Amino acid sequence: MARSLVVYESMFGNTRAVAEAIGEALAAEVVEVSDAPDVLPDDVEVLVVGAPTHAFSLSRPATRKSAADQATGALVSTGRGVREWLDTLAPIGHHVTAHAFDTRVKAGWLPGSAAKAIAKRLRALHCTVPGRPTSFHVGGTLGPLVVGEPARAAEWARSLPARSRT
């Protein structure tokens, strides 16, 4: 039976909250990136990947250290990030429709996006990535999520095509 998988990286819990809202809307398994499989199982047909935007793209070890230095509590993701997971994920040999999202500070127009970087890497892994990457907003570096963002994430998830039309 086909299934959906949501993989996320989250430092302060904001991206995790968005991933959980998406997972609930899709009735999908939700996993933190450190627990994500290195080979995508053959029964996964829909993959949703999300991460916080750090320094205008996906996090790196240095930006994760900076986030850890700012943390007021325990971090959610303490191992590898989505960048490293996607860079080591085995090329996908079956049809997968993938979607990308990020969390980012809502402060006017800012260049760069973790979601755009995720979508590019998913295409390189032979996933079909319909639509545009989506951003969900936090009120500041540590958060919290802007009011209504988890509900918007669930609505976005329900609108996603389960399969590409190609």
General description of the model:
The protein has one domain (3-159): Flavodoxin domain (Rossmann fold). α4 links the parallel β4 (97-105) and β5. The two termini are 21 Å apart. It has helices spanning 14-26, 61-70, 82-88, 114-124, 149-159; strands spanning 3-8, 29-32, 44-52, 97-105, 134-138. It is an alpha/beta fold and 166 residues long. The chain is globular and about 40 Å long. The model has no long low-confidence stretch (mean pLDDT 91). It contains five helices and five strands. Helices cover 31% and strands 20% of the residues. A five-stranded parallel β-sheet has the order 2-1-3-4-5. α1 (14-26) packs parallel to α5 (149-159).
Topology:
Layout: E1 3-8, H1 14-26, E2 29-32, E3 44-52, H2 61-70, H3 82-88, E4 97-105, H4 114-124, E5 134-138, H5 149-159
Parallel strand pairs: 1-2, 1-3, 3-4, 4-5
Q: Give the CA-based shape.
A: globular
CATH class identity: Alpha Beta
- Describe the largest sheet: 5 strands, parallel
Distance between the termini: 21 Å
Quote the CATH topology: Rossmann fold
- Rg measurement, Å: 15 Å
In total, the number of strands is 5
Q: How are the strands of the largest sheet arranged?
A: 2-1-3-4-5
Q: Quick gist of this model?
A:
The chain is of the alpha/beta class. The chain has helices at 14-26, 61-70, 82-88, 114-124, 149-159; strands at 3-8, 29-32, 44-52, 97-105, 134-138.
